[in-house]
Amino acid sequence: MRERFQNQLDTAAQKVATTLDRLPSLSDSPVGGGDAAVAQFGDALGELHESLVRGRAALDALPENATEDQNATVVAQVWPRVAARAADPFTGVTVSAAMRTAADTSACAPFSF
Hints:
With 113 residues, the protein is mainly α. The chain has helices spanning 2-22, 34-61, 68-87, 97-103. The longest helix has 28 residues, at 34-61. The chain is elongated, with a radius of gyration of 18 Å. It starts with a helix and ends in a 10-residue tail after the last helix.
């Protein structure tokens, strides 16, 4: 079980890190507020990444003979944040009026807020 938790935290941390690495390559936003939204999203993902890394370190710090409950307690401190961010990745990101208007166009409709 511990190894599975470690792998899950590692995989999540790697995926978040990849996203963070790619955010700077986005073009400047064509609408007002878009760049600020990307920055807010990046900040939130950065905090999530730090939480994942801390969770993995806390698992690693447990003794080798740690019980499943001890392992689960560590993961329970991290995983709810991961699940919440996955369920609504843009929580806390300010969506400007210009972004909402642009989201109604046919080019952006699949990404509406």
